[in-house]
Write a structure and sequence with these properties.
single chain, 325 residues, alpha/beta, TIM Barrel, 14% strand, globular
Length: 325
């Protein structure tokens, strides 16, 4: 059980990262209006959020630019059209997926970009390329984090081997990513302890990115805070792939740092997020996502179930259980 002082006080090292456009973009193919993006940028500034993730830096040779909105690719001119020179305290980020980003050429030198942070996303078996991406981004002048995805499916020995590699790299932050929303707070506590133990020895930070398949994204995030994890991902109204993420409004309501102002989050939700739902954009907890979370499976089958407007939940359960046999 956490000390009550850990819940009533705040750590000034905690950073809140808004991932609405990136993880939420997976729900609507990154087709956010400029008004939405500009208002989100202003809301984050006013709410005291530390970082705003614009989207992906995806390889245009692999992804058809006509099938996605511009935040799948995050061209420099598109970002500057929203933020100018970004002369604010809010820092900006993009995500670069291993194997899906032409990072050598598409990621500019920091001196030529409004971006502050490159978030490298990788699976364990891709770690050598992830290290190369980290080194490339660091040489270009960026802050760099590494999101190790689908950690709930990994063997402890493999996790330790990856952490050993990352500790020798110039990465600044290593993320625990519950990609399938299958973890419980007790598991998060053990994993956070492992990450923090490694990170403290090498002067690095640990972050968390949680999914809400079992309605535990917020619980796992605040568990991680109590365990020494400082970088916290959240999205407005929990918008994100499938069951979504830890909700920004919940997280800022929990954190006691007076720099955060939840009113501006609520104001943005009132103006934009409710409208998205009314327009038919779907995300958030539902039975199909619970099922894949319980079974520690990728939610792609549940996403397909949702997109096909199916309601035969018990039949879907039979299907996904059979996949584990």
């Amino acid at each position: 059980m956490k000390e009550i002082s850990n819940l009533l006080n705040y750590r000034k090292d905690v950073k809140v990262i808004d991932a609405t456009m990136r993880d939420g973009g997976l729900v609507n193919d990154f087709r956010f209006t400029d008004e939405f993006v500009h208002d989100l940028y202003l809301a984050n500034i006013r709410a005291g959020v530390d970082y705003m993730e614009f989207g992906y830096k995806a390889d245009k040779e692999l992804f058809d630019v006509n099938k996605f909105g511009k935040w799948k690719f995050c061209n420099e001119e598109d970002m500057r059209a929203i933020v100018g020179e970004n002369n604010t305290d809010l820092k900006l980020a993009i995500m670069a997926d291993v194997g899906r980003c032409n990072y050598k050429t598409d990621i500019l030198d920091r001196s030529e970009s409004v971006i502050d942070l490159i978030r490298v996303a990788t699976y364990l078996h891709q770690m050598p390329t992830a290290i190369d991406m980290i080194e490339d981004a660091k040489k270009k002048g960026y802050e760099v984090s590494c999101n190790i995805m689908a950690i709930s499916t990994a063997q402890e020995g493999d996790v330790k081997a990856a952490l050993d590699m990352l500790m020798q790299s110039p990465v600044d932050v290593i993320y625990i990513v519950d990609s399938f929303g299958s973890m419980y707070p007790e598991q998060m506590q053990r994993l956070a302890s492992l990450y923090v133990e490694y990170a403290e020895k090498f002067g690095k930070k640990v972050g968390i990115h949680a999914h809400n398949n079992q309605q535990l994204a917020f619980a796992n995030t605040i568990e991680a805070v109590g365990d020494g994890v400082d970088w916290l991902d959240a999205t407005y109204s929990g918008m994100g792939r499938g069951a979504g993420n830890c909700a920004m409004e919940l997280l800022l309501g929990f954190l006691k740092n007076p720099k955060y102002n939840i009113y501006h989050v609520i104001q943005f939700i009132d103006r934009h997020m409710t409208k998205l739902r009314e327009e038919g954009v779907q995300w958030g907890y539902d039975l199909q996502y619970l099922m894949t979370g319980l079974l520690n499976q990728h939610p792609r089958t549940a996403i397909a179930f949702t997109n096909e407007h199916r309601k035969d939940y018990s039949e879907f359960y039979r299907e996904v259980v059979a996949m584990d046999l």
